[in-house]
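The instructor's notes for this session suggest beginning with a concrete chain rather than abstract definitions. Hand out the sequence below and ask the class to guess, before any prediction is shown, which regions might be ordered.
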Amino acid sequence: MVIKRREGHTLITLLKVLIVFVACLGNWGVDALADKAAVFFSGGVSGLQQFLDDDEQEFAGIDGTTPYLLYYTEYDADTKITRHIHKQYYISGSEGAYGLIDAARRPVLEEKYQDIVILPYAWALKTDGKYQLYSKTDLTPLSDQLWDAVEPEIDEEGCTSTGMIVVQRDGLYGAIDGSGTVLMEPKWDDFDLLTTNAAWPLSRVRLADKYGFINAAGDIIIALDYEQAVMSSMVVEATGEEIPIIYVYQDGRWGGIVRNRDAQGEQPTDAAAPNAPAPVNWDLVPSAEVQADLLSNV
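After discussion, reveal the predicted structure:
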């Protein structure tokens, strides 16, 4: 019996050593595994059971809370490595008084906020009907700007952008960065940060009933002249290459806008112009089915 107890202690010790090693992976961006180690140490046997069960369940919940997985990427210019970072949280409390708990069951935010938007480098916390960005380190305000809404970009894989964050004030949309710095003052009636092709990273905006596209600096790249405009892709028959295209609708007809580098015929003489838009090609039209779908939203 004594031998079995010692074997049991040895097993637990080895498991702890292994989990400490896994926790060290957090330094390389594998924060979700580091969180699992914290769960084990804080939860004992039940924490170990959760650790072992995570293959079947993304992460166990806490009664009365809503689980939330934050996923984002960081590029290290020195090592040229992109880190994929996962952080697990639980939103606690009830309507009008929400708080936050981390994966190790430690309180992060008191249950006193009307809403919590979890960003890669900041908290967007709603009090008195307005959102404000706060430091994750010491909960100090990152800016004195107040917003009616804060909408981070989250792609189809659940990855949250570390760049622009759409904000709304007085019915108009603009953008800030993760530190709360205003990149674009709110002036658009609609702002669609997500595009379907990262090869041409433009954001669709609308003023009144006209659409266009802007770049990350807020410069207008595609003029707001169109009743409809949507980012898509097409395959070049001659090469089989898939390229981004923006389909536009104006005065009862469809056309397509591609990058200068993808346009047929003359190539741009300006070396900085390959990503600039070529003139509208009215022979490039989406399929009838796509046309009908897009026009149903006009």
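Then share the key points. The longest strand covers residues 81-94. Residues 1-12, 22-30, 38-58, 265-269 have pLDDT under 50 and may be disordered.
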